[in-house]
Amino acid sequence: MATAKKGTIPPAQLELYEKLIATIPKIERKGAVHPYTSLNGHMFTYLDQTGTMGIRLPKHEVEAFLKKYKTTLFESYGVVKKDYVTVPGTLLSNTKELKKYLEISYEYVKTLKPK
Residue 104 belongs to a domain with what CATH number? Predict the structure, then answer.
């Protein structure tokens, strides 16, 4: 009998991610092993196995975010996601500040053509 896969995400990061997602009740957290959010077939947040969060932003927000938080584009399974930024751990801990970017991300993905 197969057993359910268990994630290796550090519990503290998972808790912070879930706390952030809960700030916008319309957003549903998905994924059993790797938590993510999506709308109309477009993923817009992701928490990888190390507990690092990536968030999808519109192009003009990506550059500003990278500069402000001195971070990089998000990389997942060796692929750099050009419209995702890596959320620094200190920002993941600041739900109030990060919520602004979650709202921007959610509004942005709503403008994309459904898949």
Answer: 3.30.1460.30
